[in-house]
TrEMBL record, chain B:
It comes from Agromyces bracchium. This is Alpha-ketoacid dehydrogenase subunit beta. Residues 3-178 form the Transketolase-like pyrimidine-binding domain. Keywords: Oxidoreductase, Thiamine pyrophosphate. Its cofactor is thiamine diphosphate. Pfam families: Transket_pyr, Transketolase_C.
Length: 337, 334
């Protein structure tokens, strides 16, 4: 694990760039509030199908996305609302997609688990555990072959590390020295299966390092640590340092999906992790250091709520893709790509 | 020019790599080894290790990487040594290549070509003799083609590479050594249409890929006994060329579908169903089928021969269709 910053180092870091730190707080809050609303809308039957929220893990996406450039690519999982939002997909397009509306980012064909956006090079939204890793390898291979200095960031849960596709992908990326940043979101559970019940080696960075991939474990509840580790890794990958692997130690506060009765873990464990809520922690820290007061928080909070309200309004006003369009996008329409 | 199916495939790959910088070949042993079936022999020397890329044994990994590279602007040709090994990459083929365009609402197309060897007949036993192209032809979002002639071996690849969506090319292992004349100027061919390989009036024999030579031999044998068979080569298994299928049935009023896949749930079942759906009143006889026996393909030569479609079985089925013989009860024997 990268050594945690000392209190003095943190204070200095925040003092040196209060605006950026405040922005990280804002980004995490955007994800949190959007997803809290998603859960409500699910209960109201506005959103259907599978819904997996990221609540508790926001620091990971917020930190990593903040250091990627516009030409970089992102590959994510079915727990990707936050990744899509922070990559720049408008909340309105995400919400409309979850409503199954034509105005959604995938015209209602993807839903919660399959958000895609060409404009921000957001390649989904993959609901097959580990299924996105080979894609990331290929995107990076194309960049390498075409001499572009772009980075592909690939997010996946620790559950993916038991899949063959994980091993194949790490080996290929290392063997071919490809610009991929592998971001493992270790929230300790794959549905109800705890890490130690699924992995012989629970030190995941060590496991990845077996492929000659530079690997670190990072406190995934601390957005500053995430940002710092991601920045170093992205810089290294971009400058030809080959693939890197970051294990973000995090925790999901909510159920795996809306169907999960959470029989596999103790309330006390959840509560213990909630004390490390990445948003609340950073807020306290910013307040203590005098960079956030009640008024600033209130306006930030209002701003974020307004974005979510507008997204819901947009989705509500959305339209249904005509059934006559059902068979579109099975094959490309002539003239593409 | 005298050539072979293998050489025609190789010429197609060379041509593609010369035409388009974005084209590259990757797969197990495509480079140093020269390809499991020697199709890519010599290409490494010509194009170098970046564009003729040996991969580790990681079917899901490199097929998925091909999808990613296609998304990233390349035009990969991924070679999966044989269709049996593609089972390890089915996740990538079915869950990613076939779906990304649709799931993304039209944003991400996957201009990828996957080539693989298929079929039995070479005493390779149960794990190396599958004809699973019918399975993959079940999947919307994929185009599935089966070159059966030298022209198609030479010409389908470039057209497939120009397709903005994933195309699977199935090369029957028994075809690689087929030799013949190919026009010097042979080039790209369409991958939409079926082709009549032999015109006839009495019965339509509908097939594709590795069984085309078998069926043509059967047609010759039938001609000797006065039955004039038409042979339709499907060429593209998805989407099927319905018009060509219905046209030949409208002409002969009798059809036998020959497919090396197993009969149950097969491509031949699909073709037969389409005929009964759309040309029922054109038919003068039930649609016949010649498929592989419903067993894992055995090793022993006589058993393998008994399991796969043969010219004799095609002749027998055609004779039933034209009413010169009495058919056995419809359905698999087992
Ligand atoms: C290949 C595959 N097998 C099983 C599933 C069903 N499934 C969906 S999510 C999940 C758990 C994945 O856990 P992890 O990778 O740790 O990600 P997390 O949900 O914790 O973010 C499982 C088993 C799946 N989607 N894909
Ligand atoms: Mg997990």
């Amino acid at each position: 694990m990268t050594p945690p910053m000392t209190a003095e180092e943190r204070a200095a870091l925040i003092a040196a760039r209060p605006d950026r730190t405040l922005d990280l707080l804002r980004q995490m809050l955007r994800v949190r509030r959007l997803e809290e609303r998603c859960v409500e809308l699910y209960s109201a039957s506005k959103i259907r199908g599978f819904l997996h929220v990221y609540i508790g893990e926001e620091a990971v996406a917020a930190g990593v996305m903040s250091v990627l450039g516009p030409d970089d690519a992102v590959v994510a999982t079915y727990r990707e609302h936050g990744h899509a939002l922070l990559r720049g997909v408008p909340a309105s397009a995400i919400m409309a997609e979850m409503y199954g509306h034509a105005e959604g980012c995938c015209r209602g064909r993807g839903g919660s688990m399959h958000l895609f956006d060409a404009g921000t090079r957001f390649y989904g939204g993959n609901a097959i555990v580990a299924g996105g890793l080979p894609l990331a390898v290929g995107l990076a291979l194309a960049d390498k072959m075409l001499g572009r200095d772009r980075v592909t960031a690939c997010f996946f849960g620790e559950g993916a590390m038991a899949e063959g596709e994980f091993h194949e992908s790490l080996n290929l990326a290392a063997l071919w020295d490809l610009p991929v940043l592998f971001c493992c979101e270790n929230n300790l559970y794959a549905m109800g299966t705890a890490l130690e019940r699924s992995e012989s080696q629970t030190d995941l960075a060590l496991k990845a390092a077996a492929y000659e991939v530079a690997s670190w474990a990072v406190d995934g509840m601390d957005v500053l640590a995430v940002e710092e580790a991601a920045r170093r890794a992205v810089d290294a990958v971009r400058s030809g340092g080959g693939p890197h692997f970051l294990e973000f130690r995090t925790y999901r506060f909510r159920a795996h999906s809306m169907f999960d009765p959470e029989r596999y873990r103790e309330k006390a464990e959840v509560e213990h992790w909630m004390e490390r809520d990445p948003i609340a922690s950073l807020k306290v820290e910013l307040e203590a250091s005098g960079h956030l007061d009640e008024a600033v928080w209130a306006s930030l909070s209002r701003e974020v709520d307004a974005e979510v309200d507008a997204a819901v309004e947009f989705a509500e006003a959305g339209t249904l893709e005509p059934v006559a369009e059902l068979a579109r996008f099975v094959h490309s329409e002539r003239g593409t790509p | 020019m005298k050539t072979t199916y293998r050489e025609a495939m190789r010429a197609a790959m060379r041509d593609a790599m010369q035409r388009d910088e974005r084209v590259f070949l990757m797969g197990e042993d495509v480079g140093r080894y020269g390809g499991g079936f020697a199709v890519s022999l010599g290409l490494l020397e010509e194009f170098g290790p970046q564009r003729v890329r040996d991969t580790p044994l990681s079917e899901a990994g490199f097929v998925g990487a091909g999808i990613g590279a296609a998304l990233g602007g390349m035009r990969p040709i991924v070679e999966v040594m044989t269709v049996n090994f593609s089972l390890l990459a089915l996740d990538q083929i079915v869950n990613n290549a076939a779906t990304l365009l649709h799931m993304s609402g039209g944003q991400f197309s996957v201009p990828l070509v996957i080539r693989m060897t298929t079929g039995g007949g070479r005493q390779l036993a149960a794990q190396h003799s599958h004809s699973l192209e019918g399975w993959l032809a079940h999947i919307p979002g994929l185009r599935v083609v089966a070159p059966a002639t030298l022209e198609d071996a030479r010409g389908m690849l470039w057209t497939a590479l120009e397709d903005p969506d994933p195309v699977l090319i199935f090369e029957h292992g028994s075809l690689y050594n087929v030799a013949g004349e190919l026009a010097d100027e042979a080039g790209p061919v369409d991958i939409d249409r079926a082709a009549v390989r032999r015109a006839g009036a009495d019965v339509s024999l509908i097939t594709y890929g590795g069984t085309l030579p078998t069926v043509l031999a059967a047609a010759d044998a039938l001609a000797a006994s006065g039955i004039d068979a038409e042979v339709l080569d499907l060429r593209t298994l998805r989407p099927l060329d319905d018009a060509a299928i219905l046209a030949t049935v409208a002409k002969t009023h009798r059809a036998v579908v020959v497919d090396e896949g197993w009969r149950s749930g097969s491509l031949s079942a699909e073709v037969s169903a389409r005929i009964t759906e759309s040309a029922f009143y054109d038919l003068d006889a039930p649609v016949g089928r010649v498929c592989s026996e419903e067993v894992p393909v055995p090793y022993a030569k006589h058993l393998e021969e008994a399991a796969l479609p043969s010219a004799e079985r095609v002749v027998a089925a055609a004779r039933v269709a034209v009413g010169e013989a009495v058919g056995e009860a419809v359905g698999p024997r087992a």
